[in-house]
Design a protein that fits this description.
130 residues, mainly beta, 5-stranded mixed beta sheet, globular, Immunoglobulin-like
């Protein structure tokens, strides 16, 4: 969670993983930093990688979503910008390539109210065969 430290104007963030696990696809794992510090007004990069047990079908793709812990609908990163909380719009960017198991995220202009904990989840999306 972000925690304001007045004397240094730093915030601390704890990241937790929320990966979708399925008996069909096996177990997924992500590696994220548990705590990060960032100066208010600066940008911060949240390193994140993940592994999965099986390859995907050619008619599938991955969707990475960053959200508040226990509040899956409160997204601070989503490929559909209409699903991002207003306070995070235009301030988050996925730097990683999900096809390369990289879910690294950048947050610019860190605010003292950008409090977590935050989670990353990945969704397996089937493309239509139309």
């Amino acid at each position: 969670m972000f925690r304001r430290m007045d004397h240094k104007r730093k915030i601390t963030m704890c990241l937790f993983l929320a990966a979708i696990c399925s008996s069909v696809f096996g177990e997924w794992r992500a590696t994220v930093s548990k705590n990060l510090e960032a100066l208010v007004g600066s940008c911060v990069v949240l390193p994140c990688t993940f592994t999965h047990p099986a390859s995907f079908l050619s008619n599938s793709r991955l969707r990475g979503i960053w959200h508040r812990k226990d509040k899956w609908e409160e997204n601070f990163y989503h490929e559909d910008h209409t699903k991002i909380l207003d306070t995070f719009k235009d301030r988050t960017k996925l730097l990683g390539n999900l096809g390369e198991n990289n879910c690294t995220l950048e947050v610019i202009e860190v605010k003292d109210h950008d409090n977590g904990p935050f989670c990353f989840r990945i969704e397996y999306v089937r493309k239509d065969n139309n």
